[in-house]
């Protein structure tokens, strides 16, 4: 692949801590190879800032191969940037042109407060899983793994939902900051499997209630979540969650 | 936000939107069907709005319809109130806005609150134009039998400003339906992989057909095909 | 101190049962009083924390990421081995044990490996019960595939995301315990020291990475599940945050470090494209099932790959290893690639890459498809088209990932691949109970040394992490904690906590106060270069000796001239990195010492001085059939302890893949 070097203008959100007032800083940066990943471009920027005696930009990242879900930049009006089905760490600078201005913001949502610069607190997702995103089975000696056959279509559907990496792009893209795609992916995964049946109804109720408590908005079906999801989780999961929740609301007595 | 109460949960609120939405859609079907009777006059000018007036008078006087009118108002109010509530709540979920707003979805799906408001404003004009006079005729003047809805409509749509207002109203409805029809199905989980595209298609055609028929009435009247 | 591996008596296949039958237990009432600290929330950590929580222990779990679900186990692609024998192809606990021992070039402890094979089947049952969506056949049964170095199909998988699905299973079990209150989760916390009281691990000092505060946590026992140290090479397939710090602090507090020089270098990774490169991406080993690896026969051949005719290509693996061909084990394939590139036959702009070509596979599959469809005279284009569809169905996600990263379409031009540091078999030395030489401190998963010898087989890492966490530690920790039921929780104002916190704070302040001229990454990259070239795929005495001196010099420079911006009391990623790199320096030196000391070739450890006539690894079982366990004795000083390896159940042979 032929590579070119780019000169870019970056407008990056800087914020000292969760309480501080944030704002955009503008940086000029040269010699960015088109073969770099977006985060490597940020490495170069940070190296430059350190050499100039300034504080580098804080951003979340870890695996840099698109699976841990930690990276979370909102790039030019789109979570994870312009490429479809791609995390920020897998986005490469080929996606940009020489002279471009790139605006980078943190995920913005009441439920995802900014910790510093581009780093946000996504622990709300953990608490939603705590509310019921599991099968209540202790470690021990369950029955043989092949004792309950699972139709391939069901297993595949469960996998497609389970592929969610919990990055929060769905929330970041949603005009309502709704976490429905995230919640629904877990609910749908377990609703599709026989192991998930005993807690199926309470799981949908509890996870959704927790989502509401955490301060996420409601789903108005704009489909923005699916459009930006790096794992291309389908909005049909949300329909399934709605169905599960309504059914559960009608059948489960709550205290 | 939620305390386990269905009607204050996010999905619960959306269910109210969906249920009232479905109900309002069914009303639209009746409304557009009766409206369409007016087109008979294009092919049969000798009708002089008779068929249309019979249907309109029936709708204006039947006691079942009267009850349904009340239900309709309640449904509309519930739809509007819940919609406003959802819109406000959802806006609060992002206290700091993006410098570049997200655009990964259709504009109209993001603008249901705005479109709904436009429709509501349009409804005020619309009710003042056509519903209010029939009520005056029925309950004040007691001459509903002589009331010629057809003539009132033909007269009203000679005014180009009114025609434009109606077209804006219908356009708002069109985009509202383009999103709302399929969204209601999704809210109730009535879609799956197999039927998703069917529902989306149905929503699109429903919006196109209903809104075209609605729009044709002022347009054809204005250009003189209905007179 | 002499090493006691505490391997139970009895026949190999009965040792674990005997152990379980005789190990001391802790009653449920006492468990509620006993506190256990778990460091790391990957497969080993999450499964251990969840299981110990279920048993009723008071567990505190720590991870440096923003959520336990991000641990790097999540990136494992291929699958997890288990001796289920669902395919009826002759698998058994013994065969899994045998394959693991042989794959590890006979450098692992028999009893541990056998136990791993024994509990492997139970892992699959457990994961399925949790709702892990493994791949299934149309009949609803679990599917299996085959992996390198074995003759059976025993690998369970969930597309190319098996690690993710297994970790999310363990994570959900963990979160369930968090909800029940048995586990307290500390995300964005990094362990920076072990607190030792009366010779036992009794707690940790952790830094809250958001506020920068140092926290003290007491535990009756500390369970280390902090992963591998591949990032000592700077470039590896590890996550950016993967580090040795937790394990290294434990080492400095008395836990011996086992076999630090055993590093697995994975043959099929996307090559380095420039100096800015921050990490390397693995392409699953499964690609070697259908792809053919080659370089041009002519040196410095600058033609495009598709312009080089077949007779001018050197399919060097097929040439050198006619029996196994492109499917030789990882260590062999990696060395062969390096050999060709070093000899000047490398491809791509860096010349540090070889081709992995799917052209013949596409053609072969295309012809089969044509045959299936009853096409008698298919055109070349039709064959290629159908062949591509088949390849896409098997490897589509990998092809897409490669194209995303490199911008090249591997359906049209061959992949460029090169070996990259992937997994570290070495780690904290543990006995049969997974306890280190520091009483009360356990090490599970990749951070211990135990099960894979000098080379790990594909899909065995996930198996080991979950085996340790779900099925081993719950029993073995009882052996220690049953003696601790009278120990009350020690208040964290104990002088040992004061001392540990003071040291941690001092070190952090020292790093911040250097205020030098070069960034942490600068030093990390320089260290990586030394390690890659002198302690990487092939090693020799002179290079290793040089490396030790270079590391010492670089480390001294680091402590004089590194620039760590920011402050201690806030989120400061540079400070986190600086602490980790400082520990990598110390580890790197020990790795070189160990590699120098192990004057033989075995598995992934290849000493140029010890090779067969054909350039294969030559073991020396007479002098080196032992585990190197290094005891830290103050600054840059280590003493070697040897745990002899004896083999009762397998015959030790020279590996051959010809």
Instruction: Return Rg of chain A in Å.
Output: 21 Å
Q: Give the structural class of chain A.
A: alpha+beta
Residue share in helix of chain B: over 70%
Number-wise, the strands of chain B total: 0
Question: Main sheet of chain A, how many strands, which sense, barrel?
Answer: 5 strands, mixed
Rg result of chain B: 20 Å
Number of domains of chain A: 2
Number of strands of chain A: 7
Overall pLDDT metric of chain A: 96
Average residue pLDDT of chain B: 93
**Oligomeric form of this entry?**
heterotrimer
The geometry of chain B reads as: globular
Low-confidence stretches of chain B: none
Main interface by residue count: A-C, 80 and 82 residues
Going across the major beta sheet of chain A, what is the strand order?
A: 2-1-5-3-4
> How far apart lie the N and C ends of chain A?
62 Å
Report the major sheet of chain B. Answer: none
The CATH class of the largest domain in chain A: Mainly Alpha
First-residue to last-residue Cα separation of chain B: 55 Å
How is this structure best described in words?
The complex is a heterotrimer of chains A (255), B (227) and C (658). With 255 residues, chain A is an alpha+beta fold. Chain A has two domains: 5-105, Ubiquitin-like (UB roll) (Roll), CATH 3.10.20.30; 123-251, Fumarate Reductase Iron-sulfur Protein, Chain B, domain 2. Helices cover 33% and strands 15% of the residues of chain A. By secondary structure, chain B is an all-alpha fold. Chain B contains nine helices and no strands. Chain B is globular. Chain C is α+β, with helices and mostly antiparallel strands. Among the domains of chain C are: 12-20 and 29-261 and 422-481, 3-Layer(bba) Sandwich (FAD/NAD(P)-binding domain); 265-421, Succinate dehydrogenase/fumarate reductase flavoprotein, catalytic domain (Flavocytochrome C3, Chain A, domain 1, Alpha-Beta Complex), CATH 3.90.700. Chain C is 38% helix and 14% strand. In chain C, the strands form five sheets. Chain C has a five-stranded parallel β-sheet, with helices on both faces. A five-stranded antiparallel β-sheet of chain C has the order 11-15-14-12-13. Chain C has a four-stranded antiparallel β-sheet with strand order 16-10-18-19. In chain C, a hairpin with a 5-residue loop joins strand 7 (200-208) and strand 8 (214-218). Classes of the chains: A alpha+beta (255), B mainly alpha (227), C alpha+beta (658).
């Amino acid at each position: 692949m032929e590579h070119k070097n780019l000169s870019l203008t970056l407008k990056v959100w800087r914020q000292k801590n969760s309480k501080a007032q944030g704002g955009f800083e503008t940086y000029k940066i040269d010699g960015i190879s088109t073969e770099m990943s977006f985060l490597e471009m940020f490495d170069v920027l940070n190296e430059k800032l350190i050499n100039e005696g300034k504080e580098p930009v804080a951003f979340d990242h870890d695996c840099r191969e698109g699976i841990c879900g930690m990276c979370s930049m909102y790039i030019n009006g789109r979570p994870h940037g312009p490429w479809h089905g791609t995390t920020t760490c897998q986005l490469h600078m080929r996606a940009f042109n020489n002279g471009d201005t790139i605006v980078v913001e943190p995920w913005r949502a009441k439920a995802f407060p900014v910790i510093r610069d581009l780093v946000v607190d996504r622990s709300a997702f953990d608490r939603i899983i705590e509310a019921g995103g599991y099968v209540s089975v202790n470690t021990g000696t369950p029955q043989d793994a092949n004792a309950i056959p699972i139709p391939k279509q069901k297993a595949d559907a469960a996998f497609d939902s389970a592929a969610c990496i919990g990055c929060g792009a769905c929330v970041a893209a949603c005009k309502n900051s709704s976490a429905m795609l995230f919640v629904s992916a877990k609910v749908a995964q377990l609703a599709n499997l026989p192991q998930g049946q005993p807690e199926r109804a309470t799981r949908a109720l509890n996870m959704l209630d927790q989502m509401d408590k955490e301060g996420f908005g409601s789903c108005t079906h704009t489909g923005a979540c699916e459009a930006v999801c790096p794992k291309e989780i389908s909005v049909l999961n949300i329909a399934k969650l709605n169905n599960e929740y309504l059914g559960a609301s009608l059948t489960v007595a709550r205290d | 936000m939620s305390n386990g109460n269905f009607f204050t949960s996010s999905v619960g609120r959306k269910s109210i939107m969906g249920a009232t939405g479905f109900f309002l859609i069914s009303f639209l079907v009746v409304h557009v069907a009766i409206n369409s009777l007016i087109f008979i006059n294009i092919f049969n000018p000798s009708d002089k709005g008779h068929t249309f007036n019979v249907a309109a008078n029936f709708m204006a006087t039947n006691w079942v319809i009267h009850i349904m009118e009340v239900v309709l108002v309640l449904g509309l109010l519930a739809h509007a109130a819940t919609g406003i509530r959802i819109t406000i709540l959802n806006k609060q979920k992002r206290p700091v806005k993006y410098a570049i707003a997200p655009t990964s979805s259709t504009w109209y799906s993001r603008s249901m609150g705005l479109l709904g408001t436009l429709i509501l404003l349009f409804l005020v004009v619309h009710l003042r134009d056509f519903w209010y006079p029939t009520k005056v005729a029925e309950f004040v003047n007691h001459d509903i039998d002589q009331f010629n809805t057809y003539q009132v409509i033909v007269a009203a749509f000679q005014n180009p400003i009114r025609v434009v207002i109606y077209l804006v109203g219908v356009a708002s409805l069109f985009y509202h339906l383009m999103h709302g029809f399929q969204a209601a199905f999704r809210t109730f989980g009535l879609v799956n992989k197999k039927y998703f595209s069917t529902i989306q298609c149905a929503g699109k055609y429903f919006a196109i057909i209903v809104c075209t028929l609605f729009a044709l009435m002022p347009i054809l009247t204005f250009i003189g095909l209905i007179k | 101190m002499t090493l006691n591996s505490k391997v139970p008596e009895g026949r190999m296949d009965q040792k674990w049962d005997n152990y379980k039958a005789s190990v001391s237990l802790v009653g449920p009432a006492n468990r509620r009083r006993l506190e256990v600290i778990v460091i790391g929330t990957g497969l080993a950590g999450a499964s251990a924390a969840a299981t110990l929580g279920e048993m009723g222990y008071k567990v505190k779990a720590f991870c440096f990421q923003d959520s336990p679900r991000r641990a790097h186990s999540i990136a494992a692609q291929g699958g997890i081995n288990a001796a289920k024998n669902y395919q009826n192809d002759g698998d058994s606990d013994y065969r899994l044990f045998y394959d693991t021992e042989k794959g590890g070039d006979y450098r692992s402890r028999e009893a541990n490996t056998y136990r791993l094979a024994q509990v492997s089947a139970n892992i699959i049952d457990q994961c399925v019960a949790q709702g892990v969506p493994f791949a299934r056949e149309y009949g609803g049964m679990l599917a299996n595939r085959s992996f390198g170095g074995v003759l059976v199909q025993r690998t369970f998988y969930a597309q190319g995301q098996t690690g993710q699905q297994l970790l999310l299973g363990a994570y959900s079990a963990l979160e369930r315990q968090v909800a029940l209150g048995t586990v307290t989760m500390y995300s964005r916390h990094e362990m920076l020291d072990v607190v030792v009281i009366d010779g036992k691990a009794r707690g940790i000092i952790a830094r809250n990475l958001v506020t920068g505060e140092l926290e003290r946590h007491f535990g009756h026992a500390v369970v280390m599940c902090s992963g591998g140290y591949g990032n000592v090479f700077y470039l590896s397939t590890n996550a950016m945050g993967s580090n040795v710090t937790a394990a290294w602090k434990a080492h400095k507090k008395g836990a011996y470090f086992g076999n630090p020089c055993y590093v697995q270098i994975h043959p099929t990774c996307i090559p380095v494209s420039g100096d800015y490169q921050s990490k390397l991406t693995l392409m699953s080993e499964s690609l070697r099932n259908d792809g053919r690896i080659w370089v041009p026969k002519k040196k410095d051949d600058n033609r495009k790959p598709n312009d080089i005719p077949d007779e001018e290509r050197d399919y060097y693996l097929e040439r050198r290893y006619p029996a196994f061909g492109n499917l030789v084990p990882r260590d062999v394939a990696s060395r062969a690639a390096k050999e060709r590139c070093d000899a000047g036959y490398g491809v791509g702009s860096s010349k540090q890459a070889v081709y992995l070509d799917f052209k013949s596979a596409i053609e072969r599959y295309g012809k089969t498809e044509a045959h299936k469809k009853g096409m008698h005279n298919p055109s070349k284009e039709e064959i290629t088209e159908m062949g591509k569809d088949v390849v896409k169905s098997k490897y589509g996600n990998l092809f897409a990932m490669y194209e995303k990263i490199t911008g090249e379409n591997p359906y049209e031009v061959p992949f460029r691949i090169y070996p990259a540091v992937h997994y570290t078999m070495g780690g904290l030395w543990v006995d049969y109970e997974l306890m280190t030489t520091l009483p009360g401190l356990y090490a599970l998963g990749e951070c211990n040394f135990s099960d894979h010898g000098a080379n790990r087989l594909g899909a065995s890492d996930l198996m080991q992490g979950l085996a340790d966490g779900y099925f081993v530690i719950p029993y073995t920790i009882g052996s220690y904690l049953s003696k601790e039921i009278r120990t009350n929780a020690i208040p964290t104002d104990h002088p040992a906590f004061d001392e540990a916190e003071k040291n941690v704070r001092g070190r952090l302040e020292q790093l911040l106060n250097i205020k030098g001229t070069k960034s942490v990454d600068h030093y990390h990259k320089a260290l990586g270069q030394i390690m890659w070239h002198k302690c990487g795929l092939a090693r020799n005495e002179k290079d290793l000796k040089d490396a030790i001196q270079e590391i010492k010099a670089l480390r001294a420079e680091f402590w004089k001239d590194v620039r760590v911006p920011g402050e201690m009391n806030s989120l400061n990623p540079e400070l986190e990195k600086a602490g980790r790199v400082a520990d990598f320096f110390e580890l790197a030196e020990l790795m070189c010492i160990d590699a120098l000391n192990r004057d033989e070739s075995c598995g992934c450890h290849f000493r140029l001085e010890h090779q067969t006539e054909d350039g294969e690894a030559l073991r020396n079982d007479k002098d080196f059939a032992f585990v190197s366990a290094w005891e830290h004795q103050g600054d840059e000083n280590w003493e070697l302890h040897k745990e002899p390896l004896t083999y009762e159940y397998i015959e030790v042979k020279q590996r051959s893949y010809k």
